């Protein structure tokens, strides 16, 4: 198979971690007989420095033509970078919103998987995590409250702000289908999270999700109110397989779920559109505090590349080979600084990448 991948190294640790992920993909290609071609584009602070904008039209067009996009991270030090005190549309992060919108990425997938080797980093009691948990949050990314009409007015002398939450059945159906498709490849359970006891949009969400479920009789569907879900995530995370939810609930719940896995340097993500196309990136930011020191953890980006193989290219065996290699390296006791504990072997970003690619086998 030949795959054209646009890479966006971005700012801070972005170039270091994307480099390692590309080398891992190259090695996977060698082992399994695929060709991965990489075409870098600029986005974020580096694009502002070069072109004056966080994402040029040309860069976006190049990304649109790719089979998939691999992103590191963009942005400078919060509150203290040359890109901070400028208009919002000229900040590095504006590039992220522009590319998500430009590529129609409505489905955000964030797996929360606890490696046994990192169980001590999980803030939950050992009896709650048992032999670990493995769930994925499927969040609607381009609708709901964050994209609704908003305004602030003075009403009867009182400053009043309004945000609107809108979903139509098409938007709900397409994200529900994604969640059920993903569940079919996993443990076949979808927990749809809403606030149907209060919100009309949630009632529609529930109705459409039940309609979609009829096409997937093998998948168990349960509904859960969002407040209960927030509680269940820390009480019994092992009950979840696929959590399907709308934009704002997903924003909050995915951060909660990801934090109980212990380290931000381990968390991958994918944003997909209606085709097989996707943008894959670690859940963390550009970590300017550790940039250029070869101490960043590249695993989140490497696992994001594994998601790319699975979701954009249907290369599930190859994706599993990458995940197995990561597991092996952790079992052998190698740790980057963010996940280091006494008694283990501390390695840098480049070395971690090398250890992982050396363990990729068919
Ligand atoms: P951050 O995620 O970059 O860093 C938070 C902390 O986690 C830091 O101490 C950092 O050193 C550490 N960290 C993050 N990734 C790591 C890794 N792979 N290995 C080891 N340690 C890691 O969050 P922040 O400091 O709030 O934001 C920094 C910049 O990143 C900001 O400009 C922000 O806007 C941007 N940001 C970008 C994205 C993105 O590109 N998708 C996402 C979030 C934040």
UniProtKB/TrEMBL annotation:
Classification lineage: Bacteria, Bacillati, Bacillota, Clostridia, Lachnospirales
Binding site for Mg(2+): 227, 251, 255
Superkingdom assignment: Bacteria
The keyword NAD appears for this protein: yes
Note accompanying the cofactor annotation: Binds 1 Mg(2+) or Mn(2+) ion per subunit.
Protein name stated in the entry: 3-isopropylmalate dehydrogenase
Gene name as annotated: leuB
Organism field: [Clostridium] aminophilum
Catalytic activity: (2R,3S)-3-isopropylmalate + NAD(+) = 4-methyl-2-oxopentanoate + CO2 + NADH
Cofactor(s) required, per the database record: Mg(2+); Mn(2+)
């Amino acid at each position: 198979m030949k795959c054209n991948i646009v890479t966006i190294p971005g700012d801070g640790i972005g170039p270091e971690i994307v480099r390692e992920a590309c080398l891992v993909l190259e090695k996977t290609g060698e082992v399994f007989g695929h060709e991965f071609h990489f075409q870098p584009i600029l986005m974020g602070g580096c694009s502002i420095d070069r072109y004056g904008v966080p994402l040029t039209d040309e860069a976006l067009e190049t990304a649109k033509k790719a089979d998939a996009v691999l992103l590191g991270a963009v942005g400078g030090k919060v509150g203290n970078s040359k890109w901070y005190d400028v208009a919002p549309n000229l900040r590095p992060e504006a590039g992220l919103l522009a590319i998500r919108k430009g590529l129609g990425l409505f489905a955000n997938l964030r797996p929360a998987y606890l490696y046994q080797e990192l169980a001590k980093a999980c803030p939950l009691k050992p009896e709650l995590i048992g032999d670990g948990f493995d769930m994925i949050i499927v969040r609607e990314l381009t609708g709901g409250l964050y994209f609704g009409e908003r305004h602030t007015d003075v009403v009867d002398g009182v400053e009043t702000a309004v945000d609107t939450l809108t979903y139509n059945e098409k938007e709900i159906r397409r994200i529900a289908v994604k969640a059920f498709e993903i569940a079919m490849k996993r443990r076949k359970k979808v927990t749809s999270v809403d606030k149907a006891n209060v919100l009309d949009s949630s009632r529609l969400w529930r109705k459409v999700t039940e309609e979609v479920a009829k096409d997937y009789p093998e998948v168990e569907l349960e509904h859960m109110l969002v407040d209960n879900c927030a509680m269940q995530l820390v009480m019994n995370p092992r009950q979840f397989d696929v959590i399907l939810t709308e934009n704002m609930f997903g924003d909050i719940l995915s951060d909660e779920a990801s934090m109980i896995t212990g380290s931000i340097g381990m968390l991958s993500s994918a944003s997909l559109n209606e085709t097989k196309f996707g943008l894959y990136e670690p859940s963390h930011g550009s970590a300017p505090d550790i940039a250029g020191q070869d101490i960043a953890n590249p695993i989140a980006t490497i696992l994001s590349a594994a998601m790319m193989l699975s979701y954009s290219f249907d290369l599930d065996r190859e994706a599993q080979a990458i995940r197995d290699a990561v597991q092996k390296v952790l079992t052998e006791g190698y740790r980057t600084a963010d996940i280091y504990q006494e008694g283990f072997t501390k390695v840098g970003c480049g070395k971690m990448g090398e250890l992982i690619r050396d363990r990729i086998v068919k």
